[in-house]
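Go through this pair.

…
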Amino acid sequence: WCDTRTTEQCRWITETVGEQKLAQWVSNPALEGFTAPKLIWVRDNEPDVYDRIHRVMLPKDYIRFRLTGEYAMDVSDAAGTLLFDVQNRRWSSEIIDALSLPSEVMPPVFESIDVCGVISAKVASATGLKPGTPVVGGGADNTCGAVGTGIVEPGRVLASLGTSGVVFAHTDDVKVDPEMRVHTFCHSVPGKWCLMGVTLFAGGSFQWFRDNLGQLESGTAELVGLDPYELLTMEADRAPTGSEGLIFLPYLMGERTPHKDANAKGAFVGLTGRHGRGHMIRAVMEGITFAMRDSIDIMRGLGLELSQIRATGGGAKSNMWRQIQADVYGAEVVTINAEEGPAFGAALLAAVGTGLFSDVGSACDE
Protein backbone atom coordinates (compact mmCIF):
# COMPACT_ATOMS: atom_id res chain seq x y z
CA TRP A 1 0.00 0.00 0.00
CA CYS A 2 2.83 2.40 0.70
CA ASP A 3 4.73 1.84 -2.58
CA THR A 4 4.18 5.05 -4.54
CA ARG A 5 6.07 4.12 -7.70
CA THR A 6 2.76 4.04 -9.56
CA THR A 7 1.78 7.69 -8.95
CA GLU A 8 2.42 8.53 -12.62
CA GLN A 9 0.32 5.55 -13.73
CA CYS A 10 -2.53 6.59 -11.40
CA ARG A 11 -2.47 10.05 -12.96
CA TRP A 12 -2.54 8.51 -16.44
CA ILE A 13 -5.51 6.26 -15.54
CA THR A 14 -7.47 9.21 -14.16
CA GLU A 15 -6.74 11.34 -17.23
CA THR A 16 -7.52 8.47 -19.62
CA VAL A 17 -10.74 7.26 -18.01
CA GLY A 18 -11.95 10.33 -16.12
CA GLU A 19 -13.09 10.46 -12.49
CA GLN A 20 -16.76 10.15 -13.43
CA LYS A 21 -16.18 6.92 -15.35
CA LEU A 22 -13.98 5.56 -12.55
CA ALA A 23 -16.86 6.09 -10.12
CA GLN A 24 -19.32 4.57 -12.59
CA TRP A 25 -17.24 1.57 -13.68
CA VAL A 26 -15.19 0.58 -10.59
CA SER A 27 -16.56 2.78 -7.74
CA ASN A 28 -13.07 3.89 -6.63
CA PRO A 29 -10.31 6.37 -7.53
CA ALA A 30 -6.97 5.34 -9.02
CA LEU A 31 -4.64 4.85 -6.03
CA GLU A 32 -1.08 3.57 -5.92
CA GLY A 33 -1.86 0.35 -4.04
CA PHE A 34 -4.38 -1.02 -6.54
CA THR A 35 -3.52 -3.73 -9.08
CA ALA A 36 -4.35 -1.84 -12.31
CA PRO A 37 -1.67 0.87 -11.90
CA LYS A 38 0.86 -1.83 -10.92
CA LEU A 39 0.15 -3.74 -14.15
CA ILE A 40 0.54 -0.55 -16.16
CA TRP A 41 3.80 0.24 -14.33
CA VAL A 42 5.13 -3.18 -15.37
CA ARG A 43 3.94 -2.52 -18.94
CA ASP A 44 5.73 0.86 -18.95
CA ASN A 45 8.94 -0.21 -17.21
CA GLU A 46 9.38 -3.98 -17.67
CA PRO A 47 7.73 -4.81 -21.02
CA ASP A 48 9.54 -8.16 -21.26
CA VAL A 49 7.90 -9.21 -17.98
CA TYR A 50 4.53 -7.80 -19.05
CA ASP A 51 4.60 -9.81 -22.29
CA ARG A 52 4.99 -13.05 -20.28
CA ILE A 53 1.89 -12.53 -18.09
CA HIS A 54 -0.26 -15.67 -18.08
CA ARG A 55 -2.66 -14.93 -15.18
CA VAL A 56 -3.03 -12.08 -12.70
CA MET A 57 -3.65 -13.27 -9.14
CA LEU A 58 -3.40 -11.85 -5.66
CA PRO A 59 -1.18 -13.70 -3.15
CA LYS A 60 -3.85 -15.89 -1.54
CA ASP A 61 -5.17 -16.81 -4.99
CA TYR A 62 -1.74 -18.01 -6.09
CA ILE A 63 -1.65 -20.21 -2.98
CA ARG A 64 -5.10 -21.54 -3.93
CA PHE A 65 -3.77 -22.27 -7.44
CA ARG A 66 -0.89 -24.28 -5.99
CA LEU A 67 -3.27 -26.17 -3.66
CA THR A 68 -5.96 -26.95 -6.22
CA GLY A 69 -4.71 -26.19 -9.75
CA GLU A 70 -7.66 -23.77 -10.15
CA TYR A 71 -7.54 -20.08 -11.10
CA ALA A 72 -9.93 -18.01 -8.96
CA MET A 73 -10.33 -14.71 -7.11
CA ASP A 74 -13.06 -13.71 -4.68
CA VAL A 75 -15.13 -10.56 -5.18
CA SER A 76 -13.83 -8.72 -2.09
CA ASP A 77 -10.20 -8.92 -3.25
CA ALA A 78 -11.15 -8.30 -6.89
CA ALA A 79 -12.84 -5.07 -5.77
CA GLY A 80 -9.40 -3.73 -4.79
CA THR A 81 -7.85 -4.19 -8.23
CA LEU A 82 -9.48 -1.13 -9.88
CA LEU A 83 -10.50 -3.55 -12.65
CA PHE A 84 -13.73 -4.79 -11.04
CA ASP A 85 -17.31 -3.61 -11.47
CA VAL A 86 -18.07 -3.46 -7.75
CA GLN A 87 -21.76 -2.71 -8.24
CA ASN A 88 -22.39 -5.75 -10.48
CA ARG A 89 -19.71 -8.02 -8.96
CA ARG A 90 -17.94 -8.82 -12.26
CA TRP A 91 -14.80 -7.77 -14.09
CA SER A 92 -15.26 -4.36 -15.72
CA SER A 93 -14.75 -4.91 -19.43
CA GLU A 94 -15.15 -1.14 -19.83
CA ILE A 95 -12.08 -0.15 -17.83
CA ILE A 96 -10.03 -3.17 -18.96
CA ASP A 97 -10.62 -2.12 -22.58
CA ALA A 98 -10.02 1.57 -21.84
CA LEU A 99 -6.62 0.75 -20.30
CA SER A 100 -5.76 -1.72 -23.11
CA LEU A 101 -5.20 -4.56 -20.66
CA PRO A 102 -5.73 -8.20 -21.70
CA SER A 103 -8.99 -9.47 -20.18
CA GLU A 104 -7.99 -13.13 -20.55
CA VAL A 105 -5.37 -12.84 -17.79
CA MET A 106 -8.00 -12.17 -15.11
CA PRO A 107 -9.24 -15.31 -13.28
CA PRO A 108 -12.89 -16.30 -12.71
CA VAL A 109 -14.48 -14.55 -9.71
CA PHE A 110 -16.48 -16.13 -6.89
CA GLU A 111 -18.17 -15.09 -3.67
CA SER A 112 -16.09 -15.51 -0.53
CA ILE A 113 -18.03 -18.59 0.63
CA ASP A 114 -17.93 -20.42 -2.73
CA VAL A 115 -15.90 -23.61 -3.06
CA CYS A 116 -13.25 -22.78 -5.68
CA GLY A 117 -11.41 -26.11 -5.89
CA VAL A 118 -10.23 -29.10 -3.90
CA ILE A 119 -6.86 -30.24 -2.54
CA SER A 120 -5.01 -32.14 -5.25
CA ALA A 121 -3.48 -35.58 -4.73
CA LYS A 122 0.02 -34.11 -5.19
CA VAL A 123 -0.53 -31.46 -2.50
CA ALA A 124 -2.14 -34.05 -0.23
CA SER A 125 0.96 -36.25 -0.37
CA ALA A 126 3.22 -33.26 0.36
CA THR A 127 1.19 -31.75 3.22
CA GLY A 128 -0.87 -34.49 4.84
CA LEU A 129 -4.12 -32.71 3.94
CA LYS A 130 -6.82 -35.05 2.65
CA PRO A 131 -7.19 -35.14 -1.15
CA GLY A 132 -10.50 -33.62 -2.22
CA THR A 133 -10.69 -31.26 0.79
CA PRO A 134 -12.72 -28.22 -0.40
CA VAL A 135 -10.97 -24.84 -0.66
CA VAL A 136 -13.31 -21.86 -0.16
CA GLY A 137 -12.99 -18.41 -1.78
CA GLY A 138 -11.80 -16.46 1.24
CA GLY A 139 -11.53 -12.68 1.22
CA ALA A 140 -9.55 -9.48 1.48
CA ASP A 141 -7.85 -8.64 4.78
CA ASN A 142 -10.37 -6.06 5.94
CA THR A 143 -13.50 -7.92 4.82
CA CYS A 144 -12.27 -11.06 6.61
CA GLY A 145 -11.51 -8.83 9.61
CA ALA A 146 -15.08 -7.52 9.46
CA VAL A 147 -16.50 -11.05 9.37
CA GLY A 148 -14.23 -12.01 12.28
CA THR A 149 -15.60 -9.10 14.34
CA GLY A 150 -19.25 -9.44 13.34
CA ILE A 151 -19.53 -6.45 11.00
CA VAL A 152 -22.08 -8.25 8.84
CA GLU A 153 -25.24 -6.21 9.47
CA PRO A 154 -26.29 -2.58 8.82
CA GLY A 155 -25.40 -0.19 11.62
CA ARG A 156 -22.27 -2.02 12.73
CA VAL A 157 -18.92 -0.35 12.11
CA LEU A 158 -15.38 -1.55 12.75
CA ALA A 159 -12.80 1.00 13.90
CA SER A 160 -9.45 -0.79 13.76
CA LEU A 161 -6.74 1.37 15.27
CA GLY A 162 -3.39 -0.28 14.61
CA THR A 163 -0.37 1.08 12.76
CA SER A 164 -2.89 2.28 10.19
CA GLY A 165 -6.50 3.08 11.03
CA VAL A 166 -9.43 1.50 9.21
CA VAL A 167 -13.10 2.41 9.48
CA PHE A 168 -15.23 -0.32 7.89
CA ALA A 169 -19.01 -0.23 7.55
CA HIS A 170 -21.36 -2.94 6.24
CA THR A 171 -23.95 -1.87 3.64
CA ASP A 172 -26.83 -3.87 2.19
CA ASP A 173 -26.76 -1.78 -1.00
CA VAL A 174 -24.03 -0.18 -3.09
CA LYS A 175 -23.11 3.29 -1.84
CA VAL A 176 -20.46 5.31 -3.69
CA ASP A 177 -19.08 8.57 -2.31
CA PRO A 178 -19.37 11.05 -5.23
CA GLU A 179 -15.98 12.48 -4.23
CA MET A 180 -14.54 8.95 -3.76
CA ARG A 181 -12.97 9.85 -0.42
CA VAL A 182 -13.90 6.43 1.03
CA HIS A 183 -13.65 3.11 -0.82
CA THR A 184 -16.64 1.10 -1.98
CA PHE A 185 -15.85 -2.63 -2.06
CA CYS A 186 -17.69 -5.94 -2.21
CA HIS A 187 -18.09 -7.45 1.24
CA SER A 188 -17.22 -11.08 1.92
CA VAL A 189 -20.91 -11.49 2.80
CA PRO A 190 -22.55 -12.62 -0.47
CA GLY A 191 -24.56 -9.89 -2.15
CA LYS A 192 -23.44 -7.20 0.34
CA TRP A 193 -21.01 -4.29 0.13
CA CYS A 194 -18.89 -2.14 2.44
CA LEU A 195 -17.53 1.35 2.77
CA MET A 196 -13.97 1.75 4.04
CA GLY A 197 -11.88 4.73 5.05
CA VAL A 198 -8.15 4.54 5.79
CA THR A 199 -5.90 6.68 8.00
CA LEU A 200 -2.46 5.67 6.80
CA PHE A 201 -0.45 6.27 9.99
CA ALA A 202 -2.89 6.21 12.91
CA GLY A 203 -1.31 4.15 15.69
CA GLY A 204 1.95 4.59 13.78
CA SER A 205 1.90 8.24 14.85
CA PHE A 206 1.67 7.21 18.51
CA GLN A 207 4.55 4.77 17.92
CA TRP A 208 6.55 7.61 16.34
CA PHE A 209 5.96 9.70 19.49
CA ARG A 210 6.99 6.79 21.73
CA ASP A 211 10.19 6.13 19.77
CA ASN A 212 11.30 9.76 19.43
CA LEU A 213 9.84 11.61 22.43
CA GLY A 214 8.95 8.82 24.85
CA GLN A 215 12.37 7.44 25.80
CA LEU A 216 11.70 8.21 29.48
CA GLU A 217 8.53 6.12 29.51
CA SER A 218 10.15 3.34 27.50
CA GLY A 219 13.04 3.10 29.94
CA THR A 220 10.80 3.25 33.01
CA ALA A 221 8.41 0.67 31.55
CA GLU A 222 11.23 -1.80 31.11
CA LEU A 223 12.23 -1.39 34.74
CA VAL A 224 8.72 -1.85 36.17
CA GLY A 225 7.47 -4.43 33.67
CA LEU A 226 4.80 -2.29 32.00
CA ASP A 227 3.99 -1.41 28.41
CA PRO A 228 5.42 2.04 27.53
CA TYR A 229 2.05 2.99 26.06
CA GLU A 230 0.43 2.48 29.47
CA LEU A 231 2.77 5.07 31.01
CA LEU A 232 2.25 7.46 28.08
CA THR A 233 -1.52 7.11 28.40
CA MET A 234 -1.39 7.70 32.17
CA GLU A 235 0.49 10.95 31.52
CA ALA A 236 -2.01 11.96 28.82
CA ASP A 237 -4.89 11.31 31.21
CA ARG A 238 -3.65 14.15 33.42
CA ALA A 239 -4.17 16.64 30.56
CA PRO A 240 -7.66 18.05 30.00
CA THR A 241 -9.93 17.04 27.15
CA GLY A 242 -8.94 19.04 24.07
CA SER A 243 -5.32 19.37 25.27
CA GLU A 244 -5.91 23.09 25.96
CA GLY A 245 -6.09 23.87 22.25
CA LEU A 246 -3.10 21.82 21.11
CA ILE A 247 -3.86 19.96 17.87
CA PHE A 248 -1.90 17.14 16.25
CA LEU A 249 -2.22 16.24 12.55
CA PRO A 250 -1.22 12.57 12.09
CA TYR A 251 -0.21 12.77 8.42
CA LEU A 252 3.34 11.52 8.91
CA MET A 253 3.10 9.19 5.89
CA GLY A 254 0.76 11.28 3.75
CA GLU A 255 -2.94 10.50 3.93
CA ARG A 256 -5.63 8.59 2.11
CA THR A 257 -9.07 9.35 3.60
CA PRO A 258 -10.30 11.96 2.99
CA HIS A 259 -7.38 13.82 1.40
CA LYS A 260 -5.90 11.31 -1.09
CA ASP A 261 -2.58 13.14 -0.77
CA ALA A 262 0.70 11.23 -0.51
CA ASN A 263 2.47 14.53 0.27
CA ALA A 264 0.37 15.54 3.29
CA LYS A 265 2.50 16.30 6.36
CA GLY A 266 2.06 15.98 10.12
CA ALA A 267 2.15 18.89 12.58
CA PHE A 268 1.58 20.10 16.12
CA VAL A 269 -0.58 23.23 15.87
CA GLY A 270 -1.27 25.71 18.67
CA LEU A 271 1.75 24.88 20.84
CA THR A 272 2.23 27.37 23.71
CA GLY A 273 4.43 27.71 26.76
CA ARG A 274 1.78 26.21 29.03
CA HIS A 275 1.70 22.91 27.15
CA GLY A 276 3.65 19.98 28.56
CA ARG A 277 4.32 16.39 27.60
CA GLY A 278 0.89 15.24 28.79
CA HIS A 279 -0.80 17.72 26.49
CA MET A 280 1.31 16.54 23.57
CA ILE A 281 0.58 12.85 24.18
CA ARG A 282 -3.14 13.51 24.54
CA ALA A 283 -3.11 15.68 21.40
CA VAL A 284 -1.57 12.78 19.45
CA MET A 285 -4.31 10.43 20.64
CA GLU A 286 -7.05 12.97 19.94
CA GLY A 287 -5.63 13.91 16.53
CA ILE A 288 -5.51 10.28 15.42
CA THR A 289 -9.10 9.80 16.56
CA PHE A 290 -10.34 12.89 14.73
CA ALA A 291 -8.59 11.63 11.58
CA MET A 292 -10.54 8.38 11.96
CA ARG A 293 -13.74 10.39 12.46
CA ASP A 294 -13.28 11.94 9.00
CA SER A 295 -14.23 8.53 7.55
CA ILE A 296 -17.17 8.17 9.93
CA ASP A 297 -18.49 11.63 9.01
CA ILE A 298 -18.31 10.81 5.29
CA MET A 299 -20.23 7.56 5.88
CA ARG A 300 -22.90 9.37 7.89
CA GLY A 301 -23.16 11.90 5.07
CA LEU A 302 -23.89 9.02 2.70
CA GLY A 303 -26.88 8.03 4.85
CA LEU A 304 -25.39 5.25 6.96
CA GLU A 305 -26.77 4.72 10.44
CA LEU A 306 -23.77 3.99 12.67
CA SER A 307 -25.41 2.67 15.83
CA GLN A 308 -22.43 0.77 17.22
CA ILE A 309 -18.68 1.02 16.64
CA ARG A 310 -16.58 -2.03 17.44
CA ALA A 311 -13.04 -1.06 18.42
CA THR A 312 -10.08 -3.32 17.72
CA GLY A 313 -6.31 -2.95 17.60
CA GLY A 314 -4.06 -1.13 20.02
CA GLY A 315 -6.51 1.74 20.36
CA ALA A 316 -9.08 -0.64 21.88
CA LYS A 317 -6.82 -1.73 24.77
CA SER A 318 -6.79 1.61 26.59
CA ASN A 319 -9.89 2.63 28.54
CA MET A 320 -8.95 6.27 28.08
CA TRP A 321 -8.57 5.91 24.30
CA ARG A 322 -11.87 4.02 24.06
CA GLN A 323 -13.53 6.95 25.86
CA ILE A 324 -11.86 9.46 23.52
CA GLN A 325 -13.19 7.44 20.57
CA ALA A 326 -16.74 7.36 21.98
CA ASP A 327 -16.65 11.12 22.58
CA VAL A 328 -15.15 12.00 19.19
CA TYR A 329 -17.23 9.54 17.15
CA GLY A 330 -20.44 10.42 18.99
CA ALA A 331 -21.40 6.75 19.19
CA GLU A 332 -21.32 3.72 21.47
CA VAL A 333 -17.88 2.09 21.31
CA VAL A 334 -17.63 -1.57 22.32
CA THR A 335 -14.89 -4.18 22.37
CA ILE A 336 -15.30 -7.79 21.24
CA ASN A 337 -14.09 -11.20 22.41
CA ALA A 338 -12.32 -12.15 19.14
CA GLU A 339 -8.65 -11.22 18.94
CA GLU A 340 -7.85 -13.13 15.73
CA GLY A 341 -9.78 -10.79 13.40
CA PRO A 342 -9.06 -11.62 9.74
CA ALA A 343 -7.86 -15.20 10.35
CA PHE A 344 -10.97 -15.93 12.39
CA GLY A 345 -13.15 -14.37 9.66
CA ALA A 346 -11.52 -16.54 6.99
CA ALA A 347 -12.21 -19.63 9.11
CA LEU A 348 -15.87 -18.62 9.46
CA LEU A 349 -16.15 -18.17 5.68
CA ALA A 350 -14.72 -21.66 5.20
CA ALA A 351 -17.22 -23.02 7.72
CA VAL A 352 -20.14 -21.44 5.84
CA GLY A 353 -18.79 -22.58 2.47
CA THR A 354 -18.58 -26.19 3.63
CA GLY A 355 -22.03 -26.24 5.24
CA LEU A 356 -21.21 -25.97 8.95
CA PHE A 357 -23.33 -22.79 9.10
CA SER A 358 -26.19 -21.71 6.85
CA ASP A 359 -24.91 -18.16 6.28
CA VAL A 360 -22.26 -15.67 7.43
CA GLY A 361 -24.58 -13.81 9.80
CA SER A 362 -25.52 -16.91 11.80
CA ALA A 363 -21.87 -18.02 11.88
CA CYS A 364 -20.82 -14.67 13.37
CA ASP A 365 -23.68 -14.63 15.88
CA GLU A 366 -22.83 -18.10 17.12
Remarks:
- The chain has a mean pLDDT of 94.
- The first strand starts at residue 73 and ends at 74.
- Residues 172 and 191 are 8 Å apart (CA to CA).
- The chain is about 40% helix and 15% strand.
